[in-house]
Design a protein that fits this description.
Distance between the termini: 21 Å
Number of helices: 6
CATH topology: DNA primase, PRIM domain
CATH architecture: Alpha-Beta Complex
Shape: globular
């Protein structure tokens, strides 16, 4: 988890916020394949430092995972990290071309992590609440009609809209996941 936690300190967009407060989730999934979370506890922190996240990870039960949330609070306002949960499993021409087109609208650097069965994406930008909702809509439009599988996990987008924040897993504590997210590419 050290690789991904060290990454947060590199995001230039976060440094632009005054006294930000971040949220992370400690959560347990319901039965495999249900797509539901049985338990979620939100933890606020003033920094996403490797030390803080590793300390929090050590407190997890064997059935719990740790996720970073998009929600950031600063000076009474809500902002969001630009997160993406891809469902697509290959870095092929279709993926590359679709992301290149997407980056015309959202040109910030995209850090791509292999998450096991697919990928997680972190763009180096902070969005206002309304811009975040538009961003999530743009992510849904990356799923092309007639293509054999979704590029972006539409259920993940739905959960984000319903709970008011997006979340991406940082740990690999349970058998639900294949690996720790690992940085593979910067686009």
């Amino acid at each position: 988890m050290t690789e991904i936690t060290a990454f947060f300190g590199q995001l230039a967009s976060i440094k632009e916020l005054e006294n930000p407060t971040f949220t992370v989730s400690v959560y347990e999934n319901d039965r495999p394949g249900s797509g539901r979370t049985r338990y979620r506890r939100l933890v606020e922190t003033e920094e996403l430092s490797p030390a803080f996240l590793l300390e929090l990870q050590e407190t997890l039960s064997p059935s719990a995972e740790l996720a970073v949330n998009s929600l950031i609070k600063s000076k009474g306002n809500a902002y969001h990290l630009a997160l993406i949960d891809f469902q697509y499993q290959e870095l092929d021409d279709y993926f590359s071309q679709t992301i290149a087109d997407f980056k015309k609208q959202y040109p910030a650097l995209l850090y791509l992590f292999r998450s096991g069965r697919s990928f997680h994406g972190y763009q180096d930008m902070v969005l206002t609440e309304s811009a975040w909702r538009s961003y999530l809509g743009s992510l849904l439009l990356l799923n092309r009609p007639g293509h054999r599988e979704e590029l972006v996990d539409s259920r993940w987008v739905g959960h984000a809209l319903m709970q008011g924040f997006a979340a991406l897993r940082l740990t690999n504590n349970t058998r639900s996941y294949l690996q720790l997210p690992a940085l593979i590419k910067i686009l």
